[in-house]
Each structure stands twice: as structure tokens, then as C-alpha cells.
Amino acid sequence: QVFVCGDDVEAKQMVMNIVHALGLTPLDKGSLLAAQEIENYPLQLFPMWKFPIILSFGLTAFFFFYCLALDVIYTYIYENNNFSFFIAITIPNRVCPVMALILLALVYLPGIFAAIIQLYRGTKYRRFPDWLDRWMLCRKQLGLIALAFASLHAVFTLVTPMRAFVSWRTGKGIISQALNNKTEPLNHTTAWISDSYLALGILGFFLFVLLGITSLPSVSNNVNWREFRFVQVR
């Protein structure tokens, strides 16, 4: 995108035509009063990411310490089991999907609030409250952070069979069956539930990635509103 501002409408349109001819996307930022704001853009450090990052960090810390207290501290004090190694993979793998779903919900929740406010006011031409306006402007950042958490969850899930704890638990089950001279039959119901859970998880992650890709400016600029809405709704 190329920001264009000016007080002369014809001159500004000429510049925007040149930008179009260069294969870029012009963005009209209004009069020359906006020039100083545009010039300060390169000096800003992630201005629209501050609130999403702080919110994500706060929620992540809350759920992490909650799982830490429940799975590590509680079991160590009351059951005398040392599961401190859960901090590396198990707890993050529980926090990541929760964060991904919460942040994804926060992407679409302001749209519901905006619709309620518009219905209450009876018009869509009045400005939203400042808190809702700032929330709606950072929806894309919240969605990308949610996609990052979902990707981390997928990676943590893939490395789960490689963990020493999982290998030990599997070996313990095999030894127990050998000592008892008994082989546990395959529970087809459990197998169906497990495979369906994984299949739906893979499908959900694929749709999440597709949603994130279509939200990128370079992609969204090449699809019309109906195509973009089709992907968002699905």
C-alpha cells in the first residue's frame, strides 16, 4: 500500500493513477494534515500489536499458572508425585488450544457488539465507542496471534509420542499385560473417538490457516467481498 494525502483532488488522483500503474495499491489518507502522521509511521514499533500482545501475554500467564498449580504443585503436595517436567510440553500444549479459541472468539465478538449497538441506535452511520473501535481495529492481530497458538499446539501434539514420559507409560502398560499374561483387546469405540478427534483437529487447523491466509492484505486485496465473506463464514 502507498499512502497518498493532499488538498488538491486532481493532483491526488493523478498520483494514485501512477501508483496503480506501478502495480501498487494507493490508499487515500485525506488532506495534508495527515502528512505528519504518515511520516511518523516508520518510527512506530508495532502500534496495532500492543493491546493484542499484552492481552495474550496476560491470558497465557493466567492459564499457565492455573495448570501449573493443578497438575504440578497440587500433585506434588497431596499425592507426592513429581510432575515438574510437565512445564516443558504438557502444560503449554494445554494452554495453546485454549488461547487459540479465546483469541479467535475475541476476533468475532466485537462484530456482534457492533451489530447490537447499530440496532439499538437504528443507524449504522454513527461512530462506535472508542473501546469498541480500538477493539475492532486490532482484530486481525488477534487472529494472527490465535493462529500462532494453534500452530504451537499442532507442533506440541506432533512431538508428544517422542516424550520419555509417554514411552515409559506405554512400556509400563506392555509389561503389565505381559506379567498378567493378558492382552487388552482393541476398543473400537475408543479408537473411533480418538481418530475422529484427531481428524477434526487437523481439519480445524487447516481451516484456521486458510482463514489466516485470506486475512493477509496481499491475499484479501485479490478477492472480492463475496469470496472473502464465504471463507470467513465457513
Give structural notes.
- The chain has ten helices and two strands; from the N terminus they run E-H-E-H-H-H-H-H-H-H-H-H.
- By secondary structure, it is mainly α.
- It has two domains: 44 residues, no CATH class; 137 residues, no CATH class.
- A two-stranded parallel sheet has the order 1-2.
- Strand 1, helix 1 and strand 2 form a beta-alpha-beta unit.
- Helix 3 packs across helix 4 and helix 4 packs antiparallel against helix 6.
- It is elongated, with a radius of gyration of 25 Å.
N- to C-terminal distance: 28 Å
Counted beta strands: 2
- Please list the strands of the largest sheet in the order they lie side by side: 1-2
Report the order of strands and helices. EHEHHHHHHHHH
Please give the count of helices. Answer: 10
Q: Taking Cα atoms only, what radius of gyration do you get, to the nearest Å?
A: 25 Å
Strand content: under 5%
Which percent range fits the helix content?
over 70%
* Main sheet summary: 2 strands, parallel
Molecular shape? elongated
Mean pLDDT: 86
Task: Tell me the structural class.
Answer: mainly alpha
Poorly predicted runs of 5 or more residues: none
Number of domains: 2
Membrane topology: Multi-pass membrane protein
GO biological process, one term: copper ion import
Transmembrane segments: 53-78, 98-120, 141-159, 197-219
Organism: Origma solitaria
